[in-house]
């Protein structure tokens, strides 16, 4: 399909070069280009996973719609995020606003943690929610393309109009950010629209034109704060234009007046305030608490903020902009002042570079556009005094350079403004609002009468074709585009990182690759955000370990060094500033997902070779498993760790399966009633209660499987003592089976000092702050009926067939990989597909987490249930199936 799509567009470009040869009308070409652009943006909107900024924008938009407040993510105005949020409002996505997170601190920025929460709470439909949100923003990109076409057509003629539209429609940078709900593409579209309306007013001034110019300028201000510079540029452009009219007869043409210019700016300011619902408009300047040194007057950040205007003659001045608009500007300035780590040409530093966007432009802009820019510059020198080729009412005889100032002044000013903010240099997309002005200006290279040199005309058409082909060869991974000078996308990480290459957009492609190639194999996933794991449905082994203990590491609970297994690694993480994952450069990826996720299949020998270089302990042979020797049972691409096919289990002819049930209370205690009801009818087992004393005395040797039921895991551990726990470990290691239910699952994990550590899982534990409740125990979530769904591995163990299984939950562990090298990876047999919670902080942490997991330990088998399969009659079969698997044999007939 991609090949057909690309060929079709190459044909379209060929027709653009000579449109009359196909008898196509100009509007037909416009429709085709816009339609193709829409298709490409929709394709990426559907298949690119959410970027970190997108989660924050969408969450902030929902917060505005639900609370009417603009204090979340104030560094970006509300238009785009509100439009995106409105498009999904009817779907009623889950979200809650934690007052302990949205703190009344001027410097606090909770939008990204709330964005991760939004993904977690809506994980089952997050792809559809973001697709709908992105579609609502597609209108901006269509507007941007049409304005490029119309303005270029007005200046240079129909061929130039189509030329500019083609540049917009196929620009990889425009495509990439039009397929997100980040405001950069919208700012580019409405920014150039505002400039176009202002230009129309300049050449044909009237009250209606001034009103339209003011409204569109105000809408542009509601997309991105960078465009505030237009309030300064419009008077400069007006003065330049009026200067060109100085020697004209005032009766000949009506001239744009100062009162109308003032009206444009006032209307724009009104629209800006209207977009915020006049929130805090005309607040006195002294009432603000700022955090940036620019506005506090302090040399460094002061807790609680400050205000340099207090006790000055300005303190009582009303501020004619929304309070959160000014607060957003202050926060953004604070970010630039404090500096952030930045990457350029393979080097990291704690601030940016003034020349960052110059170099980034040479690498991220198609070379064809750079060639067209050079040609356009040469043509401007040669034909600067030529008049417009398209007759413009009232101003057709003015030199073209006068009209081009309306293009060049915003374009150059935006470039200078963005480059001057060198506190950090991370996002080339910040320059996107300048792109449409460039496209229009260089479109004049398509005009025959301005391009009498045939060589230049051929070069212009070739450069356009080169631009389109270069973009299409990377599509749909346009966000990762690098031109041929950079060596293409594959070499981009040598020069730029972050949103210039890897902004978490390829995780849906990772899911597709996993389903096709690995299926049930455990996979270490090293992402560059906190929410990508909620987008994936796979055997998650946790993040890959770092090369050393590093503060803030994603894998801070893990021992350092490469380990065998399958790894999916973000290119950002491999090249991050700490270098904690740079050891992956010693391995060769077996595949690349999208353009930003490298897949590694590391063997034990390869891991140890690199570990030796790093000076960390070597891993023992996987055929041994002793926690004290730092061995690790890992598996290659062809060896799946667990055998789940009951038909392949060895037949045992002589004895039924002997089951021991750990009991520390009376055998007839109420908590054992349901377990008795489950075990008694099973015809192929013989079961007995076993006390902790009996286990300590070696009685487990008479059994095949031990079941540790519900209760309290810590109490079991206390009663077993070290002697009893060692007896359980020896029993499993020598071939016995272990089944843990709720408390028995807690006891099996590798989380607590008192736990057995027989399965490579940890539990959510500890005290956290919860809205309105203070510090709460994260495990105290209550109980009730939960829903679980079997995984493909689980369907090979359990015979239950419903898509969703209702099961009793009573405070069981919320499980995740522990990252212990001396334990094999577990396999998920079932996941929760519902949520039970008692406190706000617990919401979203259960749904999608493992409900049943299984693993090997020595020669034995371990399977643990977070819920209670023995309570409901319809789920008791899960326990009998688990016994079969843990015993490693079929029952007697």
From TrEMBL:
Its main location: membrane. SUPFAM superfamilies: Class I glutamine amidotransferase-like. InterPro entries: Biotin-prot_ligase_N, Class_I_gatase-like, LipidA_mod_glycosyltrf_83, RgtA/B/C-like. Residues 704-873 form the Biotin-protein ligase N-terminal domain. It is a multi-pass membrane protein. Keywords: Cell membrane, Glycosyltransferase, Membrane, Transferase, Transmembrane, Transmembrane helix. The chain crosses the membrane at residues 27-46, 128-149, 161-179, 185-203, 215-241, 261-278, 354-380, 400-418, 430-449, 455-475. It is found in: Cell membrane. Residues 131-270 form the Glycosyltransferase RgtA/B/C/D-like domain. One of its GO terms (cellular component) is plasma membrane. GO terms for molecular function: pentosyltransferase activity. The keyword S-adenosyl-L-methionine does not apply. One of its GO terms (biological process) is lipopolysaccharide biosynthetic process. Pfam families: BPL_N (PF09825), PMT_2 (PF13231). The keyword ATP-binding does not apply. This is Phospholipid carrier-dependent glycosyltransferase.
């Amino acid at each position: 399909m991609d090949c057909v799509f690309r060929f079709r567009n190459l044909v379209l470009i060929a027709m653009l070069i000579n449109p009359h040869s196909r008898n196509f009308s100009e509007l037909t070409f416009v429709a085709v280009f816009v339609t193709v652009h829409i298709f490409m943006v929709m394709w990426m909107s559907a298949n690119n996973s959410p970027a970190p900024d997108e989660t924050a924008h969408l969450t902030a938009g929902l917060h505005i719609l639900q609370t009417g407040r603009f204090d979340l993510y104030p560094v970006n105005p509300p238009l785009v995020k509100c439009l995106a949020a409105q498009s999904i409002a009817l779907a009623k996505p889950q979200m809650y606003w934690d007052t302990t997170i949205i703190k009344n601190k001027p410097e606090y920025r909770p939008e990204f943690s709330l964005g991760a929460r939004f993904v977690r709470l809506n994980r089952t439909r997050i792809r559809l929610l973001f697709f709908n949100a992105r579609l609502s923003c597609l209108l901006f990109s269509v507007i941007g393309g049409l304005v490029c076409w119309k303005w270029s057509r007005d200046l240079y003629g129909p061929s130039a109009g189509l030329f500019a539209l083609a540049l917009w429609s196929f620009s990889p940078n425009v495509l990439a950010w039009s397929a997100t709900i980040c405001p950069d593409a919208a700012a580019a579209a409405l920014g150039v629209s505002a400039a176009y309306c202002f230009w129309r007013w300049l050449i044909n001034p009237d009250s209606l034109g001034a009103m339209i110019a003011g409204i569109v300028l105000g809408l542009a201000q509601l997309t991105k704060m960078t465009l505030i510079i237009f309030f300064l540029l419009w008077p400069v452009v007006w003065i330049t234009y009026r200067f060109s009219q100085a020697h004209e007869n005032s009766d000949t043409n009506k001239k744009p007046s100062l009162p109308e210019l003032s009206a444009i700016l006032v209307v724009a300011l009104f629209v800006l305030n209207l977009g915020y619902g006049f929130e805090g408009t005309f607040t006195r300047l002294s009432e603000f608490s700022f955090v940036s040194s620019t506005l506090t007057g302090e040399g460094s950040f002061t807790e609680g903020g400050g205000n340099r205007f207090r006790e000055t003659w300005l303190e009582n001045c009303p501020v004619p902009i929304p309070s959160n608009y000014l607060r957003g500007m202050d926060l953004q300035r604070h970010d630039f002042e404090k500096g952030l780590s930045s990457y350029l040409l393979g080097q990291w530093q704690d601030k940016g570079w003034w020349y960052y966007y110059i170099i980034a432009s040479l690498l991220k802009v198609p070379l064809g556009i750079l060639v067209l820019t050079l040609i356009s510059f040469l043509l401007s020198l040669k034909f600067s005094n030529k008049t417009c080729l398209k007759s413009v009412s009232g101003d057709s005889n003015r030199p073209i350079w006068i009209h081009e100032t309306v293009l060049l002044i915003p374009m150059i000013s935006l470039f200078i403004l963005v480059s001057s903010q060198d506190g950090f240099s991370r996002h080339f997309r910040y320059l996107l609002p300048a792109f449409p002005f460039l496209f229009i200006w260089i479109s004049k290279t398509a005009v025959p009468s301005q391009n009498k040199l045939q060589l230049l005309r051929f070069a212009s058409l070739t450069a356009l074709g080169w631009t389109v082909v270069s973009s299409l060869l990377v599509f749909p991974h346009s966000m990762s585009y690098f031109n041929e000078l950079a060596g293409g996308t594959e070499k981009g990480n040598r020069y730029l990182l972050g949103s210039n290459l890897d902004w978490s957009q390829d995780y849906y492609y990772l899911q597709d690759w996993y389903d096709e190639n690995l299926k049930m194999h455990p996979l270490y996933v090293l992402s560059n955000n906190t929410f990508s794991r909620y987008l994936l449905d796979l055997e998650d082994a946790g993040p890959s370990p770092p090369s050393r203990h590093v503060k803030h590491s994603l894998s801070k609970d893990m021992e350092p060094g490469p380990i065998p297994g399958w790894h999916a690694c973000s290119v950002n993480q491999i090249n991050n500033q700490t270098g904690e994952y740079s050891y992956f450069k010693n391995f060769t990826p077996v595949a690349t997902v999208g353009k930003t996720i490298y897949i590694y299949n590391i063997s034990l020998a390869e891991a140890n070779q690199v570990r030796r270089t790093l000076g960390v302990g070597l891993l023992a042979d996987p055929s041994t498993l002793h926690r004290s020797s730092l061995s690790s049972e890992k598996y290659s691409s062809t060896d799946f760790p667990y055998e789940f096919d009951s038909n392949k289990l060895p037949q045992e002819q002589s004895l039924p399966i002997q089951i021991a049930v750990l009991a520390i209370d009376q055998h007839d205690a109420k908590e054992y009633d349901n377990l008795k009801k489950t075990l008694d009818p099973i015809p192929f087992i013989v079961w007995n209660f076993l006390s902790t004393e009996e286990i300590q005395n070696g009685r487990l040797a008479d059994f095949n499987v031990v079941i540790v039921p519900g209760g309290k895991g810590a109490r079991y551990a206390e009663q077993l003592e070290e002697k009893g726990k060692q007896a359980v470990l020896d029993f499993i290691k020598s071939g016995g089976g272990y089944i843990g239910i709720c408390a028995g699952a807690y006891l099996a994990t590798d989380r607590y000092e008192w736990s057995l550590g027989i399965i490579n899982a940890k539990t959510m534990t500890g005290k956290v702050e919860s809205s309105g409740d203070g510090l709460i125990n994260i495990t105290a979530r209550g109980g009730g009926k939960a829903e679980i769904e079997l995984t493909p591995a689980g369907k090979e163990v359990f015979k239950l067939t419903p898509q969703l299984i209702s099961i009793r939950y009573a405070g069981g562990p919320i499980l995740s990989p522990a990252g212990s090298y001396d334990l094999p990876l577990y396999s998920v047999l079932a996941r929760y597909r519902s949520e039970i919670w008692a406190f706000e902080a617990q919401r979203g942490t259960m749904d999608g987490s493992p409900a049943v997991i299984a693993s090997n330990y020595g020669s034995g088998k371990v399977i643990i249930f977070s819920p209670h399969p023995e309570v409901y009659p319809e789920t008791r079969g899960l326990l009998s199936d688990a016994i079969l698997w843990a015993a490693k044999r079929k029952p007697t007939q």
